[in-house]
Each structure stands twice: as structure tokens, then as C-alpha cells.
UniProtKB/TrEMBL annotation:
Recorded superkingdom: Bacteria
A Pfam short name: AzlC
Keywords: Cell membrane, Membrane, Transmembrane, Transmembrane helix, Transport
Protein known as: Branched-chain amino acid transporter AzlC
Organism: Malaciobacter halophilus
GO terms for cellular component: plasma membrane
Amino acid sequence: MKYEKELKKAFSISIPVLMGYIVLGFAFGLLLTSFNYAWYLAPIMSIFIYAGALQFVAINFFNAKAGLVDIAIASWFVNIRQSFYGLSLLKRFKNSGKLKPFLIFGLTDETYALLTTIKDDESLSKKHYYLFLGLLNQLYWIIGCTSGALVGSYVEFDTAGLEFSLTALFVVLCIEQYKSLKNIYPFLIGALSSIFALIFIPSDKMLIVSIIIALIMMFFFRKRIEK
């Protein structure tokens, strides 16, 4: 195989993602079928959406029969962080040619973490190494989601509390972000905005309102946050 070295390297460093995506994807598949959705929606969503947090959120949107505008706005806010990931990798992806669209599409939190924490091997074809890393990570997610959906279609599970897996994912990401930033203000703003929206705003609008409030407060306290 022409790019065997790049594939082996990508697989070796993606093993932690493999362990996480299989488990979390399995949970998503079980949750999806527990709401009586067809199992094949899991691989379809994993191929064309490929956004763990958004896929979990999408289930709640479907059940609440949310409007397209609400779904679009919430989806944009949930995944807006990916835009900043992409900006920081413009130089790396500069010479990727035809592979660039997929590299952008496959830039998840975990893939970004690997790309920014593990030093590149100069002996590798970087664009193909990045390609294999993105493909493998998405493959792990597809396998996890599809497996969970298939099992959930034939075996009854008590999925009570399973939706908390998404909350757990965000808690872990939040902790990692705090370790990196060492700045408590953004997290206090997020918490206070969420509590306010939870108490005073209807549940179907709570997410959007809390994000808007948090953004306004972030701009208002911008100088203090930057310090």
C-alpha cells in the first residue's frame, strides 16, 4: 500500500478516540432506537452529520417537533467552535488540495485535539496522514452508532439516564478547557446563563436563549475575561 506508513501512524494515535467513540456511539444508537426511530438513521446521521453532540441534541429536537429555524440556530451555536478549530489549522491544511473539504468536515473535537497535541512526523505525507486520521475517527463513530442502533432494535434496554452521556461528554470537555485556559469567568457566565434560562425560559427555547445571554455577557465582561 502506497500510504501504509501514514495509515499505521494515524491508527496508532487514534486508538484513544476508538475507545471513546465506540462507547459513546453505542449509547447514541441505543438512545435513537429507544425513541422508535429506525436503526439505519444512525449510520446515515453519522455519515452526513458526524457531530456527536449535535446528533444527541437532534433526537430531542425531533421529539419536540422543533421548527427548522430553531434547529438551524441551535445547530450553528452547538458547532460554532469548529470554525475556530478550522482557523487555527489553515496553515496545516493549506496544501491538502482535493482532500481539504473532507479534512474540514471531519474536524471533530477529538481529531482537533490529536492534531494539535501530537507532533507531526516529517517523514509522512501530511495530507494523507490527516486524511486517514479523519477517516478512521469517523469510521469508529459510524461503527459505534450503528452497533448500538442494531442492538437496540432487537434487544430491549432500559435507557433511562442514557441521554446523560451527552452531558457527561460536555462536562469532560469543559474540564479540559478549564485546565487549558485557567480562567473561571467564561464558565461562570455559562453556568449563570444556563440557570437563568432553565428557570425563566420554556424548555424548547432554553438552549438558544442561554447561549445568546452567555454571548452578550461575554462581550460585556470581555476585558475582565481577557485579563
